[in-house]
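Review box. Two proteins, two foldings.
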Amino acid sequence: MSMNLDSNVSFSTKSVHYQNKSDDENEEEDNKVISRSVSCPKVIESAKSMSDDEDHDEEKTKATNSVSYGSTAHYRAGYSTSLHNYLDSGVQTARDMKNRTKDKVNQAMEEVDRFAHKVWDGRWRVVSFFQLQEWQKDNEFLHHWHRPQIPSFKACLASIFRIHTETGNIWTHLLGVILFLGICVYYLCLPATQFINVWQEKVVFFLFFLGAVLCLLCSTLFHTLGCHSERVHKIFGKLDYSGIALMIMGSFVPWVYYSFYCDSEPKVVYMTSICVLGVATIGVSQYDKFNTSRFRSFRAVIFASLGLSGIIPAIHIAIKHGFMPSLTKGQLGWLYLMAVLYLTGAFLYAMRIPERYFPGKCDLVFQSHQIFHVLVVLAAVVHFHGISNLQKVRFLHGEQCMAGD
C-alpha cells in the first residue's frame, strides 16, 4: 500500500510538472508517447479502428450529401413535371371549353335558323306602319295590316293568299297578267285571213301584249317580294318602273303603225321617238332615290309625261284627217279615254287619295295604289279595244290607202 501511494504521488507530481512545461516540450512528450504507442500492437489496432471509423463517417457523410442532392434533383424534376402536366391540363381544358362553346353557338344558330323558317314560312303577323323598316315605309296614311320584313321568298309568295296592305295591289295586276296572256294567245292564233299583212300586224300586237304583260308581271312581283329585304325591294322596284315604261312604249307601236299605215316617214319618226323616251325613262328609274317615297310625285310626272308624248302624233292625225274622222275611223276617242284613265290613276297615286282624307280607313281596300292598278288595267283594255278597231278598219279597206293617207 505504501508503494501505491508513492506511485500515485509520483504520477501526480509528473502530471503537474507536465502541465507546467512549454508547448514545445509538450509536443516532444507527445511524440515520445506516440512512438511508444506505435510499438504496442494493441495501440496500433486501436488506431486503425479509429481511422476506419473516421473513413466510414466520411463516406456516410458523402452518402448523406449525395442522397440529399439526389432528393433535391428529384424534387426539382417532379416539380417541373407537375408544372408541365398542369399547363397541359389547362390547355386541354381551354380547348374543351372552346369546342363546347363552338358547339353551343352552332346549336344556337341552328335553333335560330329553324325558328326563322318556322316564323317566315307562314307564321308571321301583320304590323303597324311604325313597326316597319325604314325602307318599307311608303305611305304613312296606311296605319295597319302591313307585312313585316320576310326574308324568305317562299313565305313572300305564300303571302299572296294572306290579307295585308299589298293583297289588293298583288291581285289587281296578277289577274291583269292572266287576262292579257289569254288575250295574247287568242289574238295571235287568229287566222291569217283576218289580216292584210299577217306577220307585221301580229308583231306589232305582240309588242303591245309584251309591254302590258311585263308591266303587270313586274308590278305583281314587286308587291309580292318587296318585303323580303331592302336589296330585293330596290331591284323589283326598278323592274316595276321599267315595266311601266315598256307598257307605254308597247301601247304606241300598233296605234302609230295603223294611223300612219301609208306614211312611212312619220311612222318611223314617232316610233323611234317613243322608244328613245321610254329607254331614257327606264334609265332614270334605275337610280335608288327614284324608288323612295320622297320622289313619288316626280315618278308620277315622269310616267305621265312619257304617256302624254302621244299627244303630238294625235294632233298630227287630227290635222291630217280632221277631228271627227280621227275620232271615229282613227279611233282617237279610245286613245283619249286611255289617257284619261292613266292620268287619273297617276294623280290619285301621287296625291294618295282617298287615304289622305281617311287615314287608317283604306288599309286593305280603296287605297290609291289599288285604284291606280285597276285604272292601269282598264286603260290597257281600252287601248286594246281601240287598236283592234283600228286594225278592223284597215282590214276593211285592204292594202289600198284611204283618202288622206
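Next protein.
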Amino acid sequence: MLQSLRESALFPSELNRVANGVMRFKLEENLGCRGVELLTDAGHDVSSIPEQRMTSATDDEGYRVCLEEQRATVTLDLDFASPIRFPPEPTAGIAVLRLPKQSGSADLERLIHVLVQGLEGDDSLDGHL
C-alpha cells in the first residue's frame, strides 16, 4: 500500500507550498502545542498527530498520513531520519529537529524559529530530509 501511495503521489513541490509561501506541516506529538503555535504564528498551515487522535499510530502510519495529506513532517523522532525507511522524495519533506540532551522549551522554540527562517523565500522542504 505504501508503495502505491509513493507511485501515485504528485510532485511534492506542487503540493506543499501554497499561496504566499505558506507551507503545510504535520507535527509529531513530541513537539507539543507550542510547536504548532509557533509555526501557525509564522503563517503556516499546521496540523498535528494529537489533534487527529493518532498518538498511538506507528511511525509508518504517520508517514502515510503525511503523504496522503501532502504535509511535511516535523518531528524530534530520529527514526524519521532514515531515508531507507522513510524516503523523503515522494513527500512534502521531513524535518527531524535535534535538541541537546539537557534542553528545555526555549531550545525547542529556537529550533522551530531556525526552521521557519530556513523556509522563508524560495527554500522548500519538498522531497527533502
